[in-house]
Amino acid sequence: MTLPDTDPGARRVLALASSALVVLVAEPLYLLVDTAVVGHLGAVPLAGLAVGGIVLAQVASLGTFLAYGTTARAARHHGAGDRAAAVREGVAATWIAVVVGAVVVAVLWAAAPWLADVLGGGGAVSAAATSWLRIAVFGAPGILVALAGHGWMRGVQDTRRPIVVVLAGNGFSAVLCPLLVYGPGPFPALGLEGSAWANVAAQVTVGVLFIGALLRERVSVRPVPADVRAQFGLGRDLLLRSAAFQACFLSATAVAARFGAPSVAAHQIVLQLWMFMVTVLDALAIAAQSLVGAALGAASVATARRVSGRVTRYGLVLGLAAGVVFAATAGVLPGVFTPDPAVRDVVPQAWWFFVALQPVAAYVFALDGVLLGAGDAAFLRRITLGSALLGFLPVIWLSLALGWGLLGIWAGLALFIAARAVAVGVRVRGDAWAVTGT
User: Fold this and answer.
1) Rounded Cα distance, 147 and 370, in Å
2) Which pLDDT score is estimated for 289?
3) Transmembrane residues, as ranges (predicted)?
4) What's the sign of the alpha-carbon dihedral 92, 94, 98, 104?
5) Read out DSSP for 19-48?
6) Cα Rg for the chain, rounded, in angstroms?
7) Are 23 and 282 spatial neighbours (Cβ–Cβ below 8 Å)?
8) Deepest in the core among 122, 135, 152, 182, taking most CB within 10 A?
């Protein structure tokens, strides 16, 4: 069975994107709730959450190779009509997630004080970050298993089960977070540590549910060395790409912390909104991954190009709309996350970069999805590393040396996004990415 040489149409693209959107926004929406809950404890706990959270976020970001690589490989098998082979990609990815997750727990628990000092600059902020991270890290295996689960389900275009799983886990945690932080009634008031325990509850719940879904597929769950090696082959480039992203954002948080608790707290607020919008825009990218991978697996380059054009147009419209909304709410939205006037005074330094970048980021993420679906990971690794090393990172550290504050940090992000926009735009116009077959 192969796919016809036709446009899958707006309805199919939007169906995949809307289901992905629900899944993607669940986690950042929970993080926004978490930020708002902890923000009312004061600037130091919020800064501690910023430092600890950015470390744990690296687990999810570096682990995206489990989602993106699995989606690309599973989608090609799905396009060729072999569902069992597609699901076996999920089995291999889940075994990798379990093993890597156990290693991550051990390493981050031991390194938490050192990482908190490096990123938080020592003192009360680093102590708060250490306390939070040493609890929250126990959710790392669940994070990675969930990424593997999303990968194979997106590959076979399963749009319902990921929604149920993610809403169950994150909904439970969103209710639990304020109860554990503030301690109403019989609940203990754990403060910042309550936020960490709520995170663990979410990740464990989601990981268990994804493993259950894999078992119900009735394929062998024994690890196949050849499948694991193939996952690592594609994952290598995706991992290096993710590492470049995270080196930039870790550096940004570290530099913001050197300008004081109000600066790093303000950076946390705008960064979490940025991450929220990244995941919203990534919904279209995920639809592109699934549809482009399936089209190329069915040897239909024309369909892959039609998908590329459609998701790019939709992304630009979405990015422009987001920019307008955030510009209109600039005087109101930051106050939702903190009552501290010192923090709110610093927010505008990053806010207008955040607003202006929305349509550019939408364009980049749409075409990232096309190239990820095609398995063009080596190219994405090269342009991401180049943009980071020549753009984002130098500007971030110049900001520290020259005292530019958040203005310099977010100018670096703008340069990084613009360079990637040019590179992916040129790539998609050519033919090198459109390789057919499984």
Assistant:
1) 19
2) 85
3) 12-33, 45-69, 90-112, 132-152, 164-184, 196-215, 238-261, 273-302, 314-337, 349-367, 379-398, 404-423
4) positive
5) HHHHHHHHHHHHHHHHHHHHHTT-HHHHHH
6) 21
7) no
8) 152
DSSP single-letter state for residue 138: G
When mean pLDDT is compared across 117-126, 317-326, 409-418, the lowest value belongs to 117-126
In this structure, the chain runs to a length of 438
Task: Compute the half-sphere exposure of residue 346: CA atoms within 13 Å on the CB side of its CA.
Answer: 27
DSSP 8-state class, residue 139:
G
The pair of three-digit structure tokens given for residue 13, joined into one six-digit string:
């693209």
CA distance 306 to 285: 14
Say if residue 333 is exposed, middle or buried (CB neighbours under 10 Å; 0-12, 13-18, 19+).
Answer: middle
**How does DSSP assign 227-274, residue by residue?**
HHHHHHHHHHHHHHHHHHHHHHHHHHHHHHHHT-HHHHHHHHHHHHHH
Residues 149 and 66 sit within 8 Å (Cβ to Cβ):
no
User: Beta-carbon neighbour count of residue 179 at 10 Å?
Assistant: 18
The residue type found at 187 is F
